């Protein structure tokens, strides 16, 4: 597949997508958004890939939706083109996606990063929702996900008053998993993804699905969802192998079945 706004490669069992519109601070135009999700879906369907990393460049992960592309759009065009629905494709990805964020993660860039399963940030990462400064609000999930991830007060401040979080603040508030020096953030994210890719694939998939259920529903329904994911794992060869390996005091050899 040939892409014009992203770069893709595999490193071992990790599928890597690099957002590649540096001239526009990696702002998401329609093409980049489509290509990003096409690439993630292709990796999701590739049995040689166990986990994915999405990154930008050191200065910008992504500065949001492309303002120039939508500045003159009518509500009719925005609705009929499903401009913000397009971002929901991240919810269909079953393998783990890690965002490796350096520099600006603003607007849709922040929203995409927090839609991923985990975030590795460089010390220069900055997270914010500046839509209010251009007369709109986040449309790719920012109001909902930030409120769930950070709580009401901080989410309000970010979306209403353009509060930007430094990498250290994002770590302190639990928005990112780890912060590493700028020279090593991508390698750290890839190593993290490799670790996940080396685990029993169906268990990883069920674990992701179960944690995500916590953001969708009540505790009672979420516990039911967890059980629905837990029991079928006993039909996998990897469950038998994992428990046998523990008892035999050896490393498990997963076959993904
Ligand atoms: N859309 C389109 N172009 C963008 C862009 C965006 N979101 N962000 C940056 N660019 C472009 C700039 O227009 C500029 O292009 P030119 O060279 O042609 O002028 C180029 O990228 C470099 O940007 P700057 O000169 O502004 O670079 P800087 O280092 O001075 O500032 C920045 C960097 C702080 C990221 C600044 O560019 C900025 O504030 N960008 C906009 C951030 C924003 O408002 N994002 C929200 C978008 S709306 C959204 O995302 C809605 C949603 O929920 C889906």
List the helices and strands and how they pair.
Layout: E1 6-11, E2 14-19, H1 30-44, E3 51-55, E4 60-62, H2 67-70, H3 75-80, E5 96-101, E6 104-106, H4 108-115, E7 118-122, E8 126-128, H5 142-150, H6 152-161, E9 165-166, H7 167-172, E10 178-180, H8 185-197, H9 201-213, H10 219-230, H11 237-247
Parallel strand pairs: 2-3, 3-5, 4-6, 5-7, 6-8, 7-10
Antiparallel strand pairs: 1-2, 8-9
Helix pairs in contact: 5-6, 9-10
The structure holds acetoacetyl-coenzyme A (CAA).
Acetoacetyl-coenzyme A binds next to helix 2, strand 6 and helix 4.
Question: How would you portray this structure in words?
Answer:
With 257 residues, the protein is an alpha/beta fold. The chain is 42% helix and 16% strand. Strand 2 (14-19), helix 1 and strand 3 (51-55) form a beta-alpha-beta unit. The protein is globular, with a radius of gyration of 19 Å. The mean pLDDT is 97. The structure holds acetoacetyl-coenzyme A (CAA). The site of acetoacetyl-coenzyme A (CAA) has 22 residues, from helix 2, strand 6 and helix 4.
């Amino acid at each position: 597949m040939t892409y014009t706004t992203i770069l893709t490669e595999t490193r071992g069992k990790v599928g890597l997508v690099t957002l590649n519109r540096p001239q526009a601070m990696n702002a998401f135009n329609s093409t980049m958004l489509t290509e990003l999700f096409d690439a993630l879906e292709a990796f999701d369907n590739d049995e040689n890939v166990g986990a994915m990393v999405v990154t930008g460049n050191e200065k910008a992960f992504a500065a949001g939706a492309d303002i120039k592309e939508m500045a003159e759009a009518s509500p009719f065009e925005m609705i009929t083109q499903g401009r913000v629905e397009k971002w929901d494709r991240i919810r269909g990805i079953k393998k783990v996606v890690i965002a490796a964020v350096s520099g600006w993660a603003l607007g849709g860039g922040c929203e995409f990063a927090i839609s991923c399963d985990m975030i590795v940030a460089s010390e220069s990462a900055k997270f914010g929702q500046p839509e209010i400064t251009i007369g709109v609000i986040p449309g790719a999930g920012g109001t909902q996900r930030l409120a769930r991830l950070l709580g009401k007060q901080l989410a309000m401040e970010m979306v209403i008053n353009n509060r930007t979080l430094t990498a250290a603040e994002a770590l302190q508030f639990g928005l990112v998993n780890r912060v590493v020096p700028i020279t090593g953030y991508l390698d750290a994210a890839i190593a993290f993804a490799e670790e996940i890719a080396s685990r029993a694939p169906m268990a990883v998939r069920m674990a992701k699905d179960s944690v995500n259920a916590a953001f969708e529903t009540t505790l009672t329904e979420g516990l039911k969802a967890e059980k629905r994911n837990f029991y079928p794992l006993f039909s996998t060869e990897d469950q038998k192998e994992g428990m046998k390996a523990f008892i035999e005091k050896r490393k498990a050899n997963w076959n993904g079945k």
